[in-house]
Amino acid sequence: MEKNQSLHAYIKEELLDRIKSNKYKKGEKIPPELELCKEFNVSRTTVRSALNQLTLEGYLYRKQGKGTYVADQKVKQTLSSTVKRYSDQIAIQGKKAKIELISINVVPATEILKKSLGVKPKEPIQRIERIRRANGEPTQYEVSYIPWDVAPGITQEHAEVSLYGSLKNAFDVHIAKTTEHIEITLADEIISTRLECKEGLPCFYIETIAEDDKGDKVEFSRSYFRGDKTNFMIERNYPPNKE
């Protein structure tokens, strides 16, 4: 155990290592609390604290009166440069992806949309509300805003596949750059309903501005990802050192 590391944090880390190394397999029941107490020589309160944290983070789940089990692996998504669609990234992990459209409507540009998209006041903007699912479970709730002039008349058919792919194939709009800001937020009433989770669940929040190959801003989006179902990979390439 590292210096200044609390007992429950140490136990959580040990159990997480067992889950990630597949010692505790998906769907498998982990040892009961009392057995873990004996193994780590700690109180039941300490073990329970570690298990509660792993449950909150989506690595474990409880069955009433039966025990604690290893949850399915979190959906992995890439934040670094990638041309792979959501469905492709999910398929690699052996899961079935689905994009579900909630609504498409046209709204007047607000102050935040004027600033984010560089549009005029009250300019017509298409608001596209979607949910992404993996094996039927919601992992991402997204609201995208695209100016009408950029891609007039986006349909359900366009929205229930890769939106960037639809912009390219149907409207000749080529996404060349995205700028993303990520932070942690807590699920409110709307987010918890869309993501089918409890209010207050920690979620990743990503705000994105997309630009086309001319440098024009063509999309602004807000996305919420279940923290217990999703993790992200960032890959960086560094140029070789030059003397």
UniProtKB/TrEMBL annotation:
Keywords: DNA-binding, Transcription, Transcription regulation. Signal peptide: none annotated. One of its GO terms (biological process) is negative regulation of DNA-templated transcription. InterPro entries: Bact_HTH_transcr_reg, Chorismate_lyase_/UTRA_dom_sf, Tscrpt_reg_HTH_GntR, UTRA, WH-like_DNA-bd_sf, WH_DNA-bd_sf. One of its GO terms (molecular function) is DNA binding. The lineage of its organism: Bacteria, Bacillati, Bacillota, Bacilli, Bacillales. The keyword Transcription applies. SUPFAM superfamilies: Chorismate lyase-like (SSF64288), Winged helix' DNA-binding domain (SSF46785). This is UTRA domain-containing protein. Residues 5-73 form the HTH gntR-type domain. PANTHER family: MANNOSYL-D-GLYCERATE TRANSPORT/METABOLISM SYSTEM REPRESSOR MNGR-RELATED (PTHR44846), MANNOSYL-D-GLYCERATE TRANSPORT_METABOLISM SYSTEM REPRESSOR MNGR-RELATED (PTHR44846:SF1). It comes from the Bacteria.
